[in-house]
Amino acid sequence: MAKFMGRVEFPCTIELGKGLEGAITNITKIGYVDGQEGHLVYRGYSIEDLCENSNYEEVAYLLIYGNLPTASQLADFESKMRAERTLPDEVKELIKSLPHDCHPMNALQAAVAAMGCMDHDGLEVTRHVSNPKESVDVERDVAVRILAQTRNAAAAIARVRKGGDILDPNPELDFTANYLYMMSGEIPDETRRRVMDVCLILQADHGMNASTFTAMVVHSSLADMYSTIAAAIGSLRGPLHGGANEAALADIQSIGTPDKAKEWVASRFAQNEKIIGFGHRVYKALDPRAVVLKGHAERLCREHGFNDLYESAATVEKEVTTRMEAAGKKIYPNVDFYSGLVYHALGFPTPQFPVIFAVARTAGWVARVLEYLPENRIFRPRAVYDGAVDQKVVPINQR
């Protein structure tokens, strides 16, 4: 592979990629986003195939270990996560002590950071820097604990916000069913569990997005895995990333009845206002995650009495894509446009939407940093300085 051996001297004429657009961070085998054709694969498997023929635990194993598990490997993986049966009492008390009206993503970030204070093995990465394989093995064990405990913390936050008691996992349930059970107190039926499984699979990894890059930057300094995941949660919190489905649902709800959707779109276009849930930095074709979720959104909305909401969304999609195609642009719904409808139909409060995203994406975050660890080099990009260089300090009484 060719290596760039040149040196950039400043000042010079260069082209800036705002938001590091176009920058390459590393080589990966974990996931690939084909934005031109609208394909998403995890370690070579299409997202559609995984959603149809696997569950979230299998996909998490695939991302973290590199292959789909055998029955015995999956049983061992499930056993490791089930060993994380309860949150530490200190974390439970922390969650209870936070204002119930704080955003659950802030609460989740605090809970994950607090867990790192109680897991002394979580700092082992700094003790094995001379042996990359040993570091990866230690960090992988920590990552599996974090995967289970992040779900537990997310469920606990949801329970406390509703005034309920924090529930421990049910040893008879799988990862996804337990997540639903710990939030609601009820064992979910198979339909509900399966839809949630699909949602978690679809959001488990997605290239070098903002939160994944955040995780890699933090861990590249050999910070512990808890600090890494807490930082990634903070990045995901923003409305331009994990919080987008909250805003997308609010937009659709604001329309009112489906007959007003065309007028609503026309007004947004007339005012040159962005419609949340459309377009993507990478995809120039249909987002495959949105394609999968659209069918679930339609069925769930019709089953749970939100038919008008779905019809409004479908009309908005048709109007926006038609207008953009007429203008010679390919702008389609992304995963946020329909995931909000699915979560709403399943009965989740809107502030919980990005928390579900965080629970799912934890597998992708830890997989990416584990892959990078053997070749680790701390991230240190440069900025172009465009300021003065010859200023002189004037004493404060003369300014």
Q: How many helices does DSSP assign?
A: 16
CATH top level assignment of the largest domain:
Mainly Alpha
According to CATH, the fold-level topology of the largest domain is: Citrate Synthase, domain 1
Mean pLDDT, as a whole number? 90
Assigned CATH superfamily of the largest domain: Citrate Synthase, domain 1
Shape descriptor: globular
Major sheet description: 3 strands, antiparallel
Q: Explain this structure to me?
A:
The protein is an all-alpha fold. The protein has 2 domains: 33-239 and 351-375, Citrate Synthase, domain 1; 244-345, Cytochrome P450-Terp, domain 2 (Cytochrome p450-Terp, domain 2), CATH 1.10.230.10. It contains 16 helices and 3 strands. It has helices at 47-53, 56-65, 71-82, 89-97, 104-118, 132-161, 175-184, 190-202, 210-220, 225-236, 244-255, 261-270, 288-303, 307-326, 335-345, 353-372; strands spanning 31-34, 39-42, 45-46. A 3-stranded antiparallel β-sheet has the order 1-2-3. β1 and β2 (39-42) form a beta hairpin. α8 (190-202) crosses α16 (353-372) and α9 runs antiparallel to α10 (225-236). The longest helix is centred in the middle third of the chain and has 30 residues, at 132-161. The radius of gyration is 23 Å and the shape is globular. Residues 1-8 have low confidence and may be disordered.
